[in-house]
Write a structure and sequence with these properties.
nucleotide-binding; alpha+beta; binds adenosine-5'-triphosphate; disordered N terminus; 786 residues; disordered C terminus; 6-stranded mixed β-sheet; 29 helices
Length: 786
Amino acid sequence: EDVYDELPEEKLDVNVGDFKESSRTDSETVQREEEAIKLDSLNVAQMKELRDKATKFAFQTEVNRMMKLIINSLYRNKEIFLRELISNASDAIDKIRLLALTNKDEMDTNPELNIRIKADKENKVLHIMDTGIGMTHEDLINNLGTIAKSGTAEFLSKMQDTTKSEGQDLNDMIGQFGVGFYSAFLVADRVVVTTKNNADKQYIWQSDANEFSIVDDPRGDSLKRGTIVSLHLKDEAQDFLEEDTLRELIRKYSQFINFPIKLWSSKTIEEEVPDDEGDVDDSQPQEKLSTSEEDSVDDEDEGDAKVEEEIPDTRRKTKTVTKTEWDWTLINDSKPIWIRKPNEVSEDEYKDFYKTLTKDSQEPLTHTHFIAEGEVTFKSLLYIPKVQPSESFNRYGTKADNIKLFVRRVFITDEFNDMMPNYLNFIRGIVDSDDLPLNVSRENLQQHKLIKVIKKKLVRKVLDMIKKINEKEYDEFWKEYSTNIKLGVVEDPSNRARLAKLLRFQTSNSKDMTSLAAYVERMRPKQEHIYYIAGANRAEVEKSPFVERLLAKGYEILYMVEAIDEYCISSLPEFDAKKFQNVAKEGFTLGESDKNKDKFEKLKSTFEPLLKWLNNVALKNKILRAEISERLSNSPCALVAGLFGWTGNMERLAMSNAHQKSDDPQRTYYLNQKKTLEINPRHPLIRELLRRVEASEADNTAKEMALMMFRTATLRSGFMLQETSDFADTIEKMMRQTLGVSLDEQIEMDEDDNEYETEKEDNEAEETTVDADVGYENDINEHDEL
Ligand SMILES: Nc1ncnc2c1ncn2[C@@H]1O[C@H](COP(=O)(O)OP(=O)(O)OP(=O)(O)O)[C@@H](O)[C@H]1O
């Protein structure tokens, strides 16, 4: 059993780039970064000079359009820019940490891993710094300007739809479509990116959204490694320079980022200092502080007395000054949530983490948080979103990067696209294992035998999580994911039994959905099979000839009205030791009492002549065989698919499947398979037919009517009719008889029609003449003789 228990700390230690601060003192870092920022905020003239020197680039058209939209959008929720930039910073740190796994030297340029945010009020600039991988010259050109992501076009069209309506949607789109970085232009009219990658020099990229430029950084590699994104905030976005606003935003959107996020923030402290009479005001160190002085002249306490004693000759006065100190303050708790014990994590934290992880604005439907032990130990936190992206099934079976894999808290990849089987690719979450090796390539890791074990356990856990969803929420789940679960039944034999328990179907019993377990519980005492029928909708299956007698006798039938249902059930041999019986297929018996059985046998022998005649005369080559039906009540007859043949519903699905070619041999095979004709011995039409056949096997009307019954049965049983025009001809003939119109009565022609006919005849006559002229006549004669 999987129990959650925290691993001993030492096991969690990561040799490379753990969260621990390095021994390097903060002050050094501050200084280094301070320099970089100072330069960035150089006076206008200096910046201009740099810009003039820089190489200019045009944004790729799509990127350009997208940026214009972002800049001009009326979109209110501009604050998400910070979430996007912090997320990019975190990704960049993930990347360098991953690189360092195979080459430790990569980390040497700057062993610290963190994200820092600093507001420069004076210059109205907001800096977001990271010590991540940084960007090379080529990266800058590609990533920040010229290569539009595949999502960009999609984003553009959706964004244009929503710019007027605004609202939640756009919030989801920025980010989900990979426009993260460009969201900087929601709040800034100029963005400067200073960046240093281990493989290249330090560069300054900047843009006012019209074009971008790149120039070597004259300071050299002051960053050592990493990136600073500096936002020159628009007038209306000045609020993002406020410390409180920033702190709140980081907590709201980025509290679960796995690296320390530090905010350059001020703290007010009070300090007692000697009050140098006379020149107090001037000598007070005022650089960074505002003061509220307190006069303590009147104080007569012990402390003062002491001072008096020890320093008899100096002034007795001290005073309190209020000092403002600036420093980096840690805002988030970078201990990953999945490392914590479940009982120490609140529901809200789970929900918030989900939002950070997925950028989904809705809350998740449910989650599971566990540690798996045994062959491999791993921690995992998995979520089911409330909705899956609308185009999920169009991309079914293609890449879905919804599970993030960590090894000992180091992010490795979210690109093992088979961490979940296709049918579960809606699951989002994290897997973190201590047992996987850190120093192998991702390719080799993907092949690692433990990954297989992890995958297997993940699926079990997900199915378990689904099973535990409460009844009310299960409806919601089922609406969204029923097709996934049914595909699971088809595609995942090893979990079929578990998946079967999750299935829900419509039923003849009530308007509510039922589980198979509930159906089995309600089965009649001698009922051996789970009865079901598949069709296009409830109204159709309710009226099907196949359900008539069963319903009349009080049996419950599952109505499978989704396209995938019949495929799903045909790969499920049984449930709870009960086999499924498609009531539209052969092999159907009601498990009747002995008395009824006798009656049935008697009927069989009575109708033997009719069955024989249908088989050998009237419907020869059209049906597999004719039989007495146990399932019909109101209809005279029905057409039944063989056990392994297609029902009318399957046939309909196959025909509507655009991927299947019309000459597909499998399809042709199934479509041409003959079916069993079941006749209802209680029906007067059938009884009349028997009477006629007994009188004369050569009765032509009987033959015609038998054919007619076969065709109506074909239609009623949901199959396609092959000979539609023959069918219509016969109906029209019957109409004449009913209406008393003679079969010989001719169709009246319009005069125009006659004219056309005459013209045609004339032309034909002419052609013959021409042929004759050219001398073809001989050939024709020869041909005739042959
Ligand atoms: N701080 C950074 N450090 C290093 N590279 C960065 C940084 N910010 C952005 N990049 C690079 O620029 C690319 C584009 O960033 P952008 O935010 O537009 O998209 P993304 O991060 O790939 O997608 P999404 O926003 O959906 O996560 C990133 O993929 C990354 O390569």
